Amino acid sequence: xxxxxxxxxxxxxxxxxxxxxxxxxxxxxxxxxxxxxxxxxxxxxxxxxxxxxxxxxxxxxxxxxxxxxxxxxxxxxxxxxxxxxxxxxxxxxxxxxxxxxxxxxxxxxxxxxxxxxxxxxxxxxxxxxxxxxxxxxxxxxxxxxxxxxxxxxxxxxxxxxxxxxxxxxxxxxxxxxxxxxxxxxxxxxxxxxxxxxxxxxxxxxxxxxxxxxxxxxxxxxxxxxxxxxxxxxxxxxxxxxxxxxxxxxxxxxxxxxxxxxxxxxxxxxxxxxxxxxxxxxxxxxxxxxxxxxxxxxxxxxxxxxxxxxxxxxxxxxxxxxxxxxxxxxxxxxxxxxxxxxxxxxxxxxxxxxxxxxxxxxxxxxxxxxxxxxxxxxxxxxxxxxxxxxxxxxxxxxxxxxxxxxxxxxxxxxxxxxxxxxxxxxxxxxxxxxxxxxxxxxxxxxxxxxxxxxxxxxxx
Length: 459
What we know:
Helices cover 50% and strands 10% of the residues. The protein is an alpha+beta fold. It folds into 2 domains: 16-164, CATH 3.30.1330.90; 178-455, 2-methylcitrate dehydratase PrpD, CATH 1.10.4100. The strands form 3 sheets. A 5-stranded mixed sheet has the order 5-2-6-7-8. Strands 1-9 form a two-stranded antiparallel ribbon. A two-stranded antiparallel ribbon has the order 3-4.
């Protein structure tokens, strides 16, 4: 089983990897299908189903689909160009994607929110259609946004999601479970990061791998800096204030005064994470880690390590990312990273496990201690629901990332106090998360039909 570090960490846009990035990717994929089709299309249409319908407005899903059908992708998203394209779309009732000419598309009526039963394959379903001059559908495809920006077609899902994501080349360390990972580490004498790096090199050169990982951290760190520098009100109607800037300013003013309690270090971890998730909520550029809703945990943990832990080195950030990606790949392969499938335990819980493993690795942990760190972090997120107020990735999501970073660091610290031997294996925690998600009521899985979403006023 192989999921690349660049699949677990993707450069994209907020506020949601499953509800914003995924639908944009799906729309762009449909354009590629249309370019190779013998049908002469006249117009485009899309329908959103399940969680994509229920929380799509709050997650800007309709906006993402419109831009995807205009040819935008998350990786090279340009905010100014997007606003121009949306204005032209509204004025002309058409899009002009490269290689397809002018296609009729009314942004007010051609993205349909279907609040009926979800599509059978997944709670995040959408159908994209091409129509002829009479409005009859000549080509259609069903897509499922399965979390973290991953998208599969209906046919791919029926063939097995794992088959759709399978590796195309042999890799030296094909671990599909934490137990296999530990066995391979023991037998090879390599660290988890070293095994993950060897697997990555089956697909790209060392220069490409290092350049890509350096870019991932640069985008993460830039996102933190933007969030720390920006205040104001987040969009969406809840009137949530950005708090990272003011908290950061207060923390800086307290430095060196020997007046703060030791627990204030938690505020530093939280403020880094909140900065990222405030940027995400505002639709800024973020890195899925492994999702947008959980995008703050990993970068906050890295930034905490770099800024506050003696001996930390920027040169070891790739080791952190490779270790974290190895753990994230196990969670995705054996359970889920999607809030719409398993609640927030699959998003912030997975992110905390990844971050705990990463920081344990760069602080000298053995493979057993790293696996233990990931297990502790995931275990103590089990059962967490996904219940965003008004369908926005703001409450409780922003603060939840801060607490996820704190749990990640605490989990790593506990694991490093031991020898790696522990009662509950990571594989058991991952399977428990999967089972808990299967048992969880749909109203607690990113539909905004339960929990805080119905107990907090939406205005």
